[in-house]
Design brief:
By secondary structure, this protein is an alpha/beta fold. It has helices at residues 2-24, 41-50, 100-116, 132-142, 192-203, and strands at 71-72, 81-82, 90-95, 122-127, 148-151, 171-175, 181-186.
Length: 207
């Protein structure tokens, strides 16, 4: 029954992504307002209460096969991040407030972050989500303290480095120490062991 529930929830996330993709590809459907503020006093207060870490801008230059040259804000305040400047190894997890499978896997991601974040950091992206208050509420509910970038406009939808997210959330992108995107993978993990397995497979790091 639980697997059936998660499958239905994942389908709902796929539908949300499909609507957003339609709006960007010329359809009359537009599910996104033009501006969403992810850094307000109220959001900063919630982020501080949660203990969610600030985003850390990278220091590298754009590389072939790397993340796109796109600067996005940090969820709940903090420094903006030029994605192309980031270097790994890093596990990027795409999620959003209304994604039930995201809710299911965030505790495992937090546990991974606490155990192995000094070797393989976790970076969330609140993807194609116009509800930053709901996103932070979900982070608080699940205990997630790893940093998250915000993409309320769904700008990453058209980027090849994040193509996996077009199929639904949650999703993973793995970036190596040179800043190259070495893999994309579907999410929905249940344990730290599953995340370790993905890290070993895609980044070649045994934890």
């Amino acid at each position: 029954m639980r697997k059936l529930f998660l499958a239905l929830a994942l389908a709902a996330c796929v539908a949300v992504g499909a609507l957003a993709w339609s709006s960007m590809s010329g359809s009359s459907i537009d599910v996104r307002p033009p501006d969403v503020d992810v850094d307000t006093p109220a959001l900063r207060e919630v982020k501080a209460r949660i203990g969610m870490e600030d985003c850390e801008p990278g220091t590298g230059d754009p590389v072939e096969g790397g993340l796109p040259e796109l600067t996005l804000p940090c969820l709940g305040g903090g420094p903006d991040v030029d994605l192309s400047s980031l270097r790994g190894p890093v596990v990027i997890n795409l999620w959003q407030a209304q994604c039930e499978p995201c809710r299911q896997e965030m505790p495992a991601l937090e546990e991974f972050h606490q155990q192995y974040g000094d070797r393989v950091p976790v970076l969330g992206i609140d993807f194609n989500d116009v509800h930053p208050d709901g996103a932070l509420a979900l982070a608080e509910e699940t205990g997630a303290t790893y940093p998250s970038i915000a993409d309320p406009g769904g700008e990453l939808m058209v980027e090849d480095a994040f193509a996996v997210a077009r199929r639904g959330l949650p999703a993973f992108v793995f970036v190596d120490e040179d800043g190259v995107v070495v893999a994309q993978d579907s999410g929905g993990v249940d344990s730290v062991a599953e995340i370790r397995s993905k890290v070993a497979e895609h980044l070649g790091i045994t934890l």
